[in-house]
Specification:
This protein is of the alpha+beta class. It has a single domain, classed as Aminopeptidase (3-Layer(aba) Sandwich). It is built from 5 helices and 10 strands; from the N terminus they run E-H-H-E-E-E-E-H-E-H-E-E-E-E-H. Strands 1, 2, 3, 4, 5, 6, 7, 8, 9 and 10 form a 10-stranded mixed beta sheet that branches.
């Protein structure tokens, strides 16, 4: 459990260890995923990058949150991820605790909405749900059953629609065709 190993702010010298942990967890092709496009040229939200240190593996877990804007209204949101737990430290509650602490910090900072791409059964443990189809799109292929959200403030999703982008950037890539056509291309 994370209580036995404290969740801490990420330090500048953690970068290499985090990259190693992410490669262990997701493989070296992880950078080709759509959610990584939202991290390119973006910086994690201040105070929302956490690690769990463990002398046996150096880093037992990591999570970061990234600022986003959605649609023409530029509705603010955060992207949770990547969330990774060292293979030798899984099923100890580290990932859930990293999320809980990160989400609590995000809420305390006034953030209202968090998005992610991941396994609904796992992320539902902290309240994430599937985004209603067609409401919000990402700048690339994604399985709509894995596109999730969490409101940190009641009603935060109301009125939010459109393409997710990095704040201050030009549109990354506007998905072409209908959602059904996009899903056929992804298959």
């Amino acid at each position: 459990m994370c209580a036995a190993i404290a969740c801490q702010d990420t330090a500048p010298d953690d970068h290499a260890a985090i990259e190693h942990l992410l490669d262990l967890s997701f493989g070296s092709d992880r950078r080709s995923k759509t959610s990584y496009r939202l991290r390119e040229g973006n910086e994690p939200a201040p105070g929302l990058s956490l690690v769990v240190r463990d002398p046996g593996v150096r880093l037992a877990g990591t999570v970061s949150f990234w600022p986003l804007v959605i649609g023409a209204r530029q509705s603010p949101a955060l992207l949770l991820g990547p969330l990774a737990v060292h293979p030798d430290r899984q099923n100890l509650g580290i990932g859930i605790e990293l999320m809980r602490q990160g989400l609590a910090r995000a809420q305390a900072q006034g953030h209202r909405l968090v998005l992610l791409v991941g396994d609904e059964a796992y992320y539902a443990k902290v309240g994430f749900r599937r985004i209603p189809r067609g409401l919000i799109s990402l700048p690339g292929p994604v399985d709509p059953d894995r596109f999730l959200y969490l409101e940190l403030a009641t009603g935060a999703l109301m009125g939010v629609e459109g393409l997710v982008q990095v704040p201050g950037s030009a549109a990354l890539a506007v998905p072409q065709g209908t959602e059904a056509e996009q899903q056929r291309r992804e298959a």
